[in-house]
Design brief:
The complex is a heterodimer of chains A (132) and B (492). Chain A is 52% helix and 0% strand. Chain A is mainly alpha-helical. With 492 residues, chain B is α/β, with parallel strands linked by helices. The longest helix of chain B has 16 residues, at 469-484. Classes of the chains: A mainly alpha (132), B alpha/beta (492). At the A-B interface, helix 5 of A face loops of B.
Chain lengths: 132, 492
């Protein structure tokens, strides 16, 4: 039978690690946790899957996503299919597609145009305008 | 017996020897050749090699690494960025060409800090115009923060939408950035800038460089002999006159002679060569200085960015002029159009990077001294001045005023985790009227050695938040006219 004293004891036993955890929980710990989660995810999911999950509200052309990561391997320093994606990969992917050429229309299928790196493909900025 | 005289003209003596082929030397040469006699003989000694644009694209950071190895010093305190190659740092600059403001030339008399220059803005105004013409600078058509006698040679680049908001709120303090990234194609092969935003290595060779615009001075004018790979080691000086320039070329020592010698290396190598030559008068080597910048990333609410037509589209003078300059460093704000997207659904373009570039005051203990190697200066740099530090510290409290025109969702100041450089090496051979407090006079001639010119950013007695290149070029043009008598009726 659960007595009041027993309930308090169990609550204290369960609560202590949580309280201790919250005391030591800090930005570095959060960073470590997030980094570990990303590493596990990178081990379990391909970059294509991770990209598609990130942009789950867009219809990404599958061949285009494969082509994009093939070019990442070619042009992106330090890229590895088994490492977490660099934070700017997602925005770089959008710049590499026809997404902005179609005004950022989320209803259109997004197709890869070419790896966005001005050193690789100059004059490929989809946002710049040259009218006065 | 003297070492062999390489590249000797018929009579064994040149009229002019220039050391270096960057902005300072090339603009001097440009004006000099226009003024000099057809029989003039000029030798240019360039330490680096002539690498064409394609080579530079494929070899990426090689020139940067080579420059980094060319001096000794603690790079973790501060790196110094430049290029040792034909065309010097024009090979890596971002082509930002604001002028200094008139008050930048009289900091001491206006604000009680730093020193006044021995030349004024008015002295240089026509030379600023000439330098802008040579570079085909694109600049604002609706006024500017400084007086101008001529319009910019090229129309301005397109503003981004945040720029337009800045302009509406600060009509007299926000302008299109003047830049040698052309807004129109040039008939000698430079295409219009297409906003690739990797300007240090422009992939289409659009920005002005010595290589794409002034190589003809070196290769087509029969009066000029260019020696690349020629490392100047010292000057011979006798009776307050430079009698020879010593240099290494292909493993051998040489000496060349001239009536006039111009050092147009940079703020690290100019003082180094003076010191190696026993020319230690004044403040040689002291006061190495450059600007320090802070980026502010602003997330916007409902306003898209990146519609401009070049990498940096606007300049803000909101933290530049004013009484605060008595106490703390002024800042020039750059408005960036490079597509630094925000990773947030529907708000990808609602972000802007603003860079605040702060001036600093030279400190004597930040200096260039001789090293163990006869070709390698030793750079001793501790820290910037408290004046600069106070400017940086005031940024956060100034931001609400500066950002007032924008619908700001949030912003963050990016504090660099490693030592950085603006690529502007300044000070070390300052110009001035008093020989004890300076190295060269207002005409850039050494106070004592009167056939020796020192050119470039090393002659700046104080710096400004503005990029220094256009002022370097204007000073070189000015120096030729002072030396040879002004073509415009001014006394020499």
């Amino acid at each position: 039978m659960m007595t009041r004293r027993r309930f308090i004891g169990i609550a204290a036993l369960c609560g202590a690690p949580i309280a201790a955890g919250s005391l030591v929980w800090s930005e570095p710990v959060e960073w470590l946790y997030s980094r570990t989660a990303q590493r596990i995810r990178a081990f379990l999911q391909s970059p294509e899957e991770r990209l598609r999950a990130h942009f789950d509200y867009l219809e990404l052309d599958p061949d285009s996503v494969r082509s994009y990561f093939a070019d990442c391997g070619r042009y992106r320093h330090g890229f590895s299919r088994r490492l977490p994606l660099a934070p700017d990969v997602y925005t770089n992917y959008l710049l590499s597609t026809d997404f902005f050429r179609h005004g950022g229309d989320e209803s259109r299928r997004v197709r890869y145009v070419g790896y966005y790196d001005p050193a690789v493909t100059p004059c490929n900025n989809p946002l710049a305008r040259f009218d006065s | 017996m003297d070492p062999a005289i390489a590249a000797s003209p018929r009579d064994g003596t040149f009229d002019l020897i220039l050391v270096g082929s960057g902005f300072a030397s090339s603009f001097f040469l440009h004006r000099y050749l226009r003024r000099a006699d057809v029989s003039a003989r000029v030798l240019v000694l360039e330490r680096g090699e002539l690498h064409d644009h394609r080579w530079q694209l494929t070899h990426r950071d090689e020139l940067g690494r080579e420059a980094s190895r060319s001096y000794s010093g603690d790079r973790s305190t501060k790196p110094w960025v430049f290029r040792l190659a034909f065309g010097g740092s024009s090979n890596c600059w971002w082509a930002c060409t604001p002028r200094f403001l008139p008050e930048d030339f009289r900091l001491e008399s206006t604000y009680g800090v730093g020193r006044d220059w021995p030349v004024s803005y008015d002295d240089l105004e026509e030379y600023y115009c000439d330098a802008e013409d040579i570079m085909a600078v694109s600049g604002p058509a609706d006024g500017s923060p400084y007086p101008r006698s001529r319009p910019y040679p090229q129309p301005p680049h397109r503003f981004s939408d945040p720029d337009r908001l800045f302009k509406q709120r600060f009509p007299d303090r926000f302008f299109n950035q003047p830049t040698a990234r052309p807004s129109r194609a040039l008939d000698y092969g430079r295409p219009r800038c297409c906003a690739s935003s990797v300007c240090s290595r422009c992939p289409i060779d659009s920005k002005f460089t010595i290589l794409n615009s002034l190589t003809h001075l070196y290769q087509s004018d029969p009066r000029v002999t260019l020696l690349t790979g020629a490392t100047v080691t010292s000057l011979d000086v006798a009776n307050n006159t430079v009698t020879g320039v010593r240099y290494e070329l292909a493993g051998a020592d040489h000496v060349a002679r001239a009536d006039l010698v111009g050092l147009g290396a940079n703020a690290i190598f100019n003082p180094f060569l003076l010191l190696r030559s026993g020319i230690t008068d004044g403040m040689v080597g002291q006061g190495l200085v450059e600007q320090v910048s802070r980026d502010v990333i602003v997330d916007l609410d409902g306003v898209d960015n990146f519609q401009g037509s070049t990498s940096i589209t606007g300049l803000g003078y909101m933290l530049y002029q004013g009484a605060h300059r008595r106490d703390r460093a002024a800042a020039l704000m750059e408005s960036w159009n490079a597509p630094l997207l925000r990773d947030q659904r529907g708000k990808w373009r609602q972000r802007i990077k603003l860079t605040f570039i702060y001036e600093d005051l030279p400190k004597p203990e930040n200096r260039v001294v001789l090293g163990a190697d006869r070709t390698k200066p030793d750079v001793q740099y501790g820290a910037p001045s408290p004046y600069l530090r106070r400017g940086l510290d005031a940024l956060e409290q100034s931001l609400p005023l500066v950002l007032e025109p924008l619908p700001v969702e949030r912003y963050s100041i990016v504090h660099p985790t490693t030592a950085s450089s603006e690529g502007h090496n300044l000070g070390t051979t300052p110009m001035g009227d008093e020989p004890t407090r300076s190295v060269v006079d207002r005409h850039l001639l050494h106070h004592r050695v009167r056939n020796l010119l020192v050119l470039g950013g090393s002659v700046f007695p104080t710096i400004s938040p503005a990029n220094p290149t256009l002022t370097i070029c204007a000073l070189s043009l000015w120096a030729v006219d002072r030396l040879m008598g002004s073509s415009r009726g001014r006394p020499s």
